[in-house]
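@channel anyone free to eyeball this complex?
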Amino acid sequence: DARVTQTPRHKVTEMGQEVTMRCQPILGHNTVFWYRQTMMQGLELLAYFRNRAPLDDSGMPKDRFSAEMPDATLATLKIQPSEPRDSAVYFCASGPFTSGWVDEQYFGPGTRLTVT
Amino acid sequence: AQKITQTQPGMFVQEKEAVTLDCTYDTSDQSYGLFWYKQPSSGEMIFLIYQGSYDEQNATEGRYSLNFQKARKSANLVISASQLGDSAMYFCAMREADTGTASKLTFGTGTRLQVTL
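replying in thread with the prediction:
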């Protein structure tokens, strides 16, 4: 049963520290998304990649957030320096891009980040 | 303007009954897709069902069906024969055409469903 995996599942860190979240998309999926979920804002798209190339990261605070795909099996989201307002659940999702659409996006279990 | 509106913050349904979760959307695109996801208390997002704007038939997946009314711009999720395990948060989402290079999802605020005995 193919799944998106994310590590770590939980992260508590102090303000100012660097945080790196990792995602392994489903094998064969060429589109990867990063979402953030908070009580106030709900689910927001931060960035997404197609064939490892970033297509849109307009939802991401550029000064402190960065997203990369070093290879087809790994996507990373980094926050440096972290701030308390970054506390949220961060989801990675992947999907196959066929016929111009991603008809299904499969989510990972999320990383629950707490910045104190 | 909200692109996806879920007007029911919370719903209760008795076990074995059917329940409809409302979702309306706003888009000027002719080609778009509508999704429903379930988020149980464990936090993961589970894909339930998808409806394309050009699909003439309403999508069905097991006990889930999507009541798609294009003219009204609504895409309600119907869960038949509710089970206790259906208690969760349910999100409606829409994919719009952009430059054609990818598919971004916009999510509604969710409806919390509680199934009772």
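from a first look: DSSP finds no helices and eleven strands in chain A.
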